[in-house]
Amino acid sequence: MREEEFVLAVYPTVRGYSFVLFEGPESPFDWGTKDIREVPKNPAILDHVATLLDRYHPVALVMEDHDDRRSRRAPRIKKLCRSLVALAVTSHIEVALYSREEVKKSFASAGAVTKYEIAQAVAQHIPAFKHRLPPIRKIWMSEDHRQSLFDAAAIGITHYSRQSRCETA
């Protein structure tokens, strides 16, 4: 039996999803970005995440709050997020959802406001991710697929920073 208490951060995208499995706030155990080619994508992504949940038995699943009124996620992604929450609940796994604003607040002390600045702060926080940092995005460019890995990591780091605040309060 494992003694680690893993936290799984998942960030669904139009192309698939990214995940970071944390052992602690500064120690990712596993991570990846998965492009899903099957149509429809949601059942395939659910199967992949279910496999991660079965393999690692995390204590928490953390994601972006897809129901936040400021969330601009596509309807398919919102439906996928609801399904992922239901999957975690039926697996008796705690679910924590953080809005984009909460993630920004978590990284404000590092002076990071934009998604790219937050990605840079994540790369500083987790040196193993430095070589995956996408180039800065110009306004005419679509978002680099590697950005989702940093979005997942940022949500995981936000979860740990919120947990530590709750413990000290």
Textual characterization of the structure:
This protein has 169 residues and is an alpha/beta fold. It has a single domain, classed as Ribonuclease H-like superfamily/Ribonuclease H (Nucleotidyltransferase, domain 5). It has helices at 41-56, 75-90, 100-107, 115-125, 147-168; strands spanning 7-12, 16-24, 27-35, 60-64, 94-98. It has a five-stranded mixed β-sheet with strand order 3-2-1-4-5, with helices on both faces. A hairpin with a 3-residue loop joins strand 1 (7-12) and strand 2.
Mean pLDDT: 90
Give the class from helix and strand content and strand pairing.
Answer: alpha/beta
Q: Which residues sit in consecutive blocks of at least 5 with pLDDT less than 50?
A: none
The figure for the number of domains is 1
Largest sheet entry: 5 strands, mixed
The ordered H/E elements are: EEEHEHEHHH
E-strand count: 5
Note the total helix count: 5
Relative helix content: 40-55%
Overall CATH class: Alpha Beta
Q: From the coordinates shown, what is the CATH architecture? A: 2-Layer Sandwich
The CATH topology? Nucleotidyltransferase, domain 5
Report, as a whole number of angstroms, the end-to-end distance: 32 Å
Strand composition percent: 15-25%
CA-atom Rg in angstroms = 15 Å
Q: Order of strands across the biggest sheet?
A: 3-2-1-4-5
Question: What is the CATH H-level superfamily?
Answer: Ribonuclease H-like superfamily/Ribonuclease H
What's a quick, concise take on this entry?
The chain is of the alpha/beta class and 169 residues long. The chain has 5 helices and 5 strands.
